[in-house]
Amino acid sequence: MSDLNGGQPVSLWAGTAEEKDVSSPFESGGPVDVAIVGGGYTGLSTALHAAEHGLSVHVIEAEHVGYGGSGRSVGFVNAGTWHPPGYVRKRLGPVFGPRFLERFSEAPATVFDIIERHQIRCSATRTGTLHVAHSPAGLRNLEVRHAEWKRLGAPVELLNRDAVRELAGTGAFFGGLLDRRAGTINPMGYCRGLARAAQMTGARISTGVRVEVLRRDAGFWRVETRQGTVTANSVVLATNAYTDGLWPGLGQVYVPIHYLQFSTPPLGEEADHILPGRQGLWDTGKVMASIRRDAAGRLQIGTMGRVIGSSEDGLTWRWAQRRLRSLFPELGELRFETAWDGRIALTPDHVPRIHQLAEELWTAIGYNGRGITTGTVFGQAMAELLCGSDPAGLPLPVTGIATVPNRALKAWLYDIAFSAKQFWP
Predict the structure, then answer these.
(1) Taking a C-beta distance cutoff of 8 angstroms, is the pair 170, 279 a contact?
(2) How far is Cα 397 from Cα 391, in angstroms, rounded to an integer?
(3) pTM of the predicted protein model
(4) SS3 breakdown of the chain: % helix, strand, coil, rounded to 5?
(5) How far apart are the first and last CA of the chain?
(6) Smallest Cα–Cα separation from 146: which of 158, 162, 160?
(7) In angstroms, rounded to a whole number, what is the distance separating the alpha carbons of residues 162 and 293?
(8) Which one, of 107, 54, 5, lies nearest residue 338 by Cα?
(9) For 124-161, how does the pLDDT look when each residue is reduced to its tens digit (9 = 90+)?
(10) For residues 371 and 365, what is the distance between their CA atoms, to the nearest angstrom?
(11) How far apart are CA 294 and CA 302, in angstroms?
């Protein structure tokens, strides 16, 4: 559920995760090697890997673990970015392009290895994800992607309409790509599991504590909150789409957009033919839509935009009903038990960023809806950087911040366009 349902969990995943919430009061303690602002995938992956390297770590989260995009995610563990490999190579150049593609091709395996190593209970599946063509033009786009990934040796299959029908349970799509590297998880379960693992490795996690000031003093960072101050050698800002005004200009490097989801109650045998392999599915539409079926048999449908109304009525409810009826008419009208939305940090080129904001102050930002793998991999990279590795070895070049022109206007236009799309299936 969303904040629009005041006082309720931020998503279905918060109420169904097997991992318990990790919360603890603020303790200032002595100086630490690294202070991390934000208790989502990036912050917790950084904390876990930095602690494994022997660094002292303090994570400070304004709300609770997984409060932002991490706990509101669709739960797809995907490789790569929105763009096909050729675009990434062209955009990042001959050094960082191949390096980024290699690291993010392996990103789902990185996530699943962490899940296995720390026995994180998050309903993980490794049966792949389906990128399906909503039109003939969408299929041509997937054919290009398939050819590029095959040249790189990735286990990605191009499927015809009949094959997609068998895997998805609907004949509405023209074909698709099955990426066997990928899978699905309960995203809040994974986030809480990362927090548990980080704590067990020695990291300190304080929740319900908002950082109000970052100040450099005598070679150290002073991370100031109303509950007290943390002194650290280095700071990582791990807030992504939930970045506030803590560091001037940082919230202006991306355009915030929303992604919404509706979930049915468990459907039982009547829905067993829908995604029987539990792959996550998303389409090639400009206003993307997604479908998955969770471990309990609930069906989730999502798209770009905010929830307008509730899980029982309103514009978005009507969109979800029409969309599911067009895909699975045999199900009839469905009841939804939860609805929620979250924010995505959209960069102009749909490629994430690593910024050095000041001496020993770092951030990774702009995940464009690929937070599970991107946050995990960048957390590893941040930990390596904090341990003295050369920034030239990062998956992306380190850059200074550049604000998005007309950011507020673009966010408003996206919101209008996504809301208007809800009038159609």
Answers:
(1) no
(2) 8
(3) 0.96
(4) 35, 25, 40
(5) 22
(6) 158
(7) 20
(8) 5
(9) 999 999 999 999 999 999 999 999 999 999 999 999 99
(10) 10
(11) 13
